[in-house]
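Hallway conversation turned thread

IA: we were arguing at lunch whether anyone had actually written out 2,5-diamino-6-ribosylamino-4(3H)-pyrimidinone 5'-phosphate reductase end to end. Turns out nobody had. So, for the record, here is the sequence (397 residues) and right after it the structure tokens. Reply here if something looks off.
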Amino acid sequence: MSIHDRAKSFCSSLLESITTPKSKNGPIVTLTYAQSLDSRISGRNGQQLALSCEESFIMTHRLRILHDGILVGIGTILNDNPRLTARLLGPDELESTISQPRPIILDSQLRFPLSSNVLKQSKMNGYKSPLIVTSYDHDSAKRKLLEQEGAVVVPIESNKNGQLSIAHLLSILSSPPFSICRLMVEGGAKVIKSFLKSNMVDLLIVTIAPTFVGVNGILAIDSNSTENQEPHHRFLYYKTPKQKNDDIIVPTQNVENSNINKRLPNNQIDSIQNNSSVNVDKSKPSINVTTSIIPKGCSPFVTMIIKWKTHGVPKNEKLEVRLNWFPSSRANSGPALWPGFPKIVLNRKKSIPTEIYMGKNQSLTFYVTIRSVHKISNQTVFNYVPIFAVKNPSFAC
Ligand SMILES: NC(=O)C1=CN([C@@H]2O[C@H](COP(=O)(O)OP(=O)(O)OC[C@H]3O[C@@H](n4cnc5c(N)ncnc54)[C@H](O)[C@@H]3O)[C@@H](O)[C@H]2O)C=CC1
Ligand SMILES: Nc1nc(O)c(N)c(N[C@@H]2O[C@H](COP(=O)(O)O)[C@@H](O)[C@H]2O)n1
């Protein structure tokens, strides 16, 4: 599979099951940005940094294709002069023939430069005119100039600090003539904060690059700033984080807009108990297995405590119990070991705690493998027995 095919399937899988937007009157909103290990999105004085590695950039460009609009703040336009197009494409794709997303810029005071790349490129075939969203309190002469150059300028409500209303923005974007169904928000820092605060983000995809920028860089989310003191909306892993060359891509979904929201409150989900009785051999030993699944804080990990009792196992006989577990998709394919899911050899110990990764919507089927070795006759009974399946365990948050 080529690097482009991998990006295609990864990005499609991220978007395919997000069908209901957080905002009832708006598009599905994906917020995505790249940060360093110390949470910086750019360097000293906002210096633009290539934090993403090549494969992560390819993923970002693929995500751009899958959205109808890409939104940034005017700070990013003035600082980076970005193009906001999908250019890192496969060999069979042409930049000018794919459906490029519309650039959307939040610019309360119409500081947008006439020389910007997004405006220049909109004159070329295949590229859409930038949509500049501004406040009612804008410079009308500048608006005229921008419109003459082909930009579309739309005034909307703003608050007393001049910040444009995200709710109003989303309802305008999803309506004609823009009809944006999927919006990708790239930043910068103020826009990231505003969107997270608005709680209209459906999918948050953060690329983490293995580098430190240092204290002078711009923080993605400045938790010291007073405007960020209010409670944060919660995001949980949506898909397993992926390593792309050097970087880690962390896809998370808004908890308040997903199935994981339907879980029970923390105090009702101390553990899930399962009891299974398994016969090794009808005439010979049997085992009774009890398991408890204990959520581990706000994380997709659970601790599983397995307890068992054996019956009728003669002292001179060896009983070996193994536990394997598989995602539900593999449950029918037999008990071959699923990579990344360790098997535990229980032997004669009476209980064992182990930590298991259980992603959202993950349903796991657990198998015990019982191997009873009769020392005298050397007869071996070898059984794989599915003991239970756990669907969507609740993560305590
Ligand atoms: N690493 C990454 O993935 C990215 C990094 N960046 C970096 O971010 C920096 C720019 O960030 P900022 O200076 O914070 O500017 P910004 O790009 O977030 O733009 C903020 C400006 O947008 C306007 N605005 C209007 N309504 C707003 C609202 N509701 N919320 C927020 N802003 C609103 C205001 O004029 C505000 O000053 C640059 O250094 C750029 O390189 C930008 C995008 C992605
Ligand atoms: N995904 C990602 N990784 C980085 O390391 C980045 N610095 C950014 N920045 C964003 O991409 C814009 C540049 O886009 P063009 O290549 O000009 O199309 C930049 O303005 C940021 O929004 N992104």
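OS: looked through it. DSSP finds seven helices and 20 strands in the chain.
IA: good, adding that to the notes. The mean pLDDT is 76.
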